[in-house]
Amino acid sequence: MEEKKQVIFTRPHKTVYAAGDKIIKVFDDRYTAADVLNEARNEALVEQYTTLDVPSFVSVSETPEGWCLVRKKIEGRTLAELMDAESDKLETYMEKFVELQMAVHSQKVFSIKRLRHKLMDQINSLKDVNATVRYELATRLQSMPKHTKLCHGDFTPTNVIVDENGRWWIIDWAHAAQGNASADAAMTYLLFCLEDKKKADLYRKLFCEKSDTARQYVERWLPIVAAAQLTKKKEEQKEFLTGWIDVAEYQ
Fold it and tell me: What are the helix (H) ranges across 32-107?
């Protein structure tokens, strides 16, 4: 007997359901089999080769609704929910969030895609951005230090679940890659800025302090990751992100 599915949330081109002890993410036809299989591969690789708390990958398959990815369900609340519900603990939560991201960066998954290759492909695909800007972005990317640290690529409080025992689980590894930790931090800062500048500034301050990283170094990645975010074609973000891809502003 098939378990009853309950919609957890919907986003453009995907719907996430809970069914018993599993989470099912269903993608529409915008996602190819290769897209979904790549996300499934990332989930499996991170589970196998790291010491991080990540939900167990179960399966990937094609359904009448579209391709779907299934993983174990983690009971708990997202860190985003906790930050909003307990605003007096924001700095404490943010400190642990930064420490968790640094734990991610301490891991190695050598068979996962390289971040600089992914970013270069994204820059080159931005045909709405003129060739001169694309060249400047590509040149900066090529000049940045090339590391092999595990990067989540979408590390936000909505992708951290805190269970009833206080364990912090990291979900949604679709954008994972190996690369420079400060690029990952710049993306997290950018995603915070899209929602809440106060949290963004607190995050940046704590990340730079705890990782002993110069703020200016993280900022040098901002035009590059803003270009990467533009490729997601979220119309409500376009004006904001376009203003961030000026390389000269972050010299």
Answer: 33-49, 79-85, 90-105
Beta bridge pairs of residue 60? 69
Residue pair 76/162 in contact (Cβ under 8 Å)? The answer is: yes
Structure token digits, residue 172 = 């949604």
62: which residues sit within 8 A by CB, 6+ positions away?
A: 33, 68
Q: What is the DSSP letter of 213?
A: -
DSSP state of 147: -
Please name which of 151, 140, 240, 232 lies closest in space to residue 190, comparing C-alpha atoms.
Answer: 240
| Long-range contacts of 242-245, Cβ-Cβ distance < 8 Å, separation of 24 or more | 242/129, 244/190, 245/129, 245/133, 245/137
Measured between alpha carbons, how far is 24 from 15 in angstroms, rounded to an integer? Answer: 8
DSSP label at 88? G
pTM above 0.85, yes or no: yes
- Note down pLDDT in tens along the chain; length 251 residues: 456 789 998 888 899 999 999 999 999 988 999 999 999 999 999 999 999 999 999 999 998 889 999 999 999 999 999 999 999 999 999 999 999 999 999 999 999 999 999 999 999 999 989 999 999 999 999 999 999 999 999 999 999 999 999 999 999 999 999 999 999 999 999 999 999 999 999 999 999 999 999 999 999 999 999 999 999 988 999 999 999 997 656 55
